[in-house]
User: Which sequence fits this backbone?
């Protein structure tokens, strides 16, 4: 893709700070550095988001994530945790439309980074939860 900033990074048209590379995966420091070591892991093959992955691309990319995460952990022994984030489509905060996974090291509760989840458990009955699960399962089986 010609207008994709990550494709340009892969093709060395734009500089980056690489931390890992093989024939199919490229990992580099996110220039925002939400926390020290914030790394992006991307497939070299252009896919817009998770919905475009084929099994091979997913297998190859996700197999490398633990290796890179362990590299972060060994490099930064003061790291106390790691957020793994993948945003898909604009409403879910995807801003670069070449699929990527954020590895965000966590050092303390004062990292200036927070994720919160609403607890909507009381909004769904057992019947609704069962129906939702059944619908998703049937869709996956029939895909």
Assistant:
């Amino acid at each position: 893709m010609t207008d994709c900033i990550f494709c340009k990074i892969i093709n060395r048209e734009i500089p980056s700070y690489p931390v890992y590379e093989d024939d199919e995966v490229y990992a580099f420091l996110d220039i925002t550095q939400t926390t020290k070591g914030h790394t992006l892991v991307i497939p070299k093959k252009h896919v817009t988001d998770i919905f475009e992955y084929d099994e091979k691309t997913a297998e190859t990319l996700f197999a490398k994530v633990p290796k890179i995460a362990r590299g972060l952990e060994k490099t930064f022994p003061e790291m106390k945790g790691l957020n793994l984030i993948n945003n898909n489509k604009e409403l879910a905060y995807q801003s670069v439309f070449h699929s990527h996974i954020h590895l965000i090291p966590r050092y303390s509760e004062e990292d200036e980074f927070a994720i919160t989840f609403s607890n909507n458990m009381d909004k769904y009955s057992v019947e609704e939860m069962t129906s939702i699960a059944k619908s998703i399962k049937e869709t996956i089986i029939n895909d």
